[in-house]
Design a protein that fits this description.
single chain, 305 residues, Transferase(Phosphotransferase), domain 1, five-stranded antiparallel beta sheet
Length: 305
């Protein structure tokens, strides 16, 4: 399908999967994807998420994404989630279908707190949402899995306010001998990971404390609207579009941290203290586990009211 149009690719994929699962699959909405096809589909009357990739397509990420889908299927199965997937013997292609949760990610769900000024109720509400995100990551760690690419759009909030982590293609098991960085959004990597990326280390170790850092970075972004490290000429300037990966990594390695005051975010001392511990430069100075972060956030909800 390398020379097919997007519409032709999607039609062929849907036909292939319909044949494989013995049910009716129709596409409701094509979603953004770095390569392959990601879509909201209807499977026998129920909404589902489809991911498909062909290793032969002209995209340098394609072969990696085939492995990523296989990895995601393994993690979803470990977590006890419903998933239907292509046979592993299909070496060149991979697909999965899982139940659709919602398309309301953490960024949109917490937009209320970025509308200043922030009142007492807004703070308590935001801390509740932050605690749920932390608890979802804590649950993943209890299953011996590091997410590896925590970011706002990988946190989905369901209609019932339940919080779900998604996109496990670069997740790793902690019961492996040496969990390592596979990929992920550079904005949220810890200094020790950024250092390894700049040196092109192979492998770059990751662990619960690198995930604590990522969690703190994501929560900072959700509260303030920007990431905790600055890449521009000063802390008030965002320069995402023209900043390459290495410059972003250097900002993290050099410890160029923003504060709430730098960017006009409302003061929130108890929450800032939690973030500062999550984002400590030295791993030993961070919370030891995500469970510790969850407990600290939960305790702060009471004082925020």
């Amino acid at each position: 399908m390398a020379d097919s149009t997007p519409a032709e690719k999607t039609t062929a994929v849907v036909h292939e999967i319909t044949e494989a699962i013995g049910g009716r699959v129709t596409v409701e909405k094509i979603l953004p994807a770095r390569c392959g096809i990601t879509a909201k589909v209807d499977v026998n009357g129920r909404a589902a998420l489809l991911k498909y990739v062909d290793a032969n397509e002209r995209n340098r990420f394609a072969a990696h994404r085939v492995h990523g889908i296989h990895n995601e299927v393994d993690i979803l199965t470990l977590l006890g989630r419903d998933v239907v997937a292509s046979p592993r013997e299909q070496a060149d292609t991979a697909w999965l279908i899982q139940p659709w949760i919602d398309d309301n990610n953490a960024w949109h769900h917490t937009a209320f707190v970025r509308r200043h000024p922030v009142g007492t109720d807004d703070r308590a509400h935001f801390l509740t949402e932050a605690t749920r995100i932390s608890a979802a990551l804590e649950n993943l760690h209890r299953h011996s899995v590091l997410h590896g690419d925590l970011q706002p759009r990988h946190v989905i909030v369901g209609d019932d306010e339940s919080t779900h982590l998604i996109d496990f293609d670069v997740s790793v098991r902690t019961d492996n001998d040496s969990p390592q960085y596979v990929g992920g959004l550079v904005h949220h990597v810890a200094p020790e990971v950024a250092t390894g990326m700049l040196r092109n280390d192979k492998p770059i170790p990751i662990n619960p404390r690198t995930e604590v850092f990522a969690l703190g970075s994501v929560l900072f972004q959700l509260y303030t609207g920007t990431v905790p490290h600055w890449y521009g000429t000063d802390p008030t300037v965002d320069d995402f579009a023209t900043t390459d990966r290495d410059r972003k990594c250097r900002a993290v390695v050099e410890g160029r941290r923003r504060t709430f005051a730098h960017i006009g975010a409302p003061p929130f001392d108890d929450f800032a203290d939690i973030l500062n511990t999550c984002l400590a430069y030295r791993p030993a100075d961070r919370f030891g586990t995500v469970a510790d972060v969850t407990a600290a956030l939960h305790a702060t909800i009471i004082t925020a009211r």
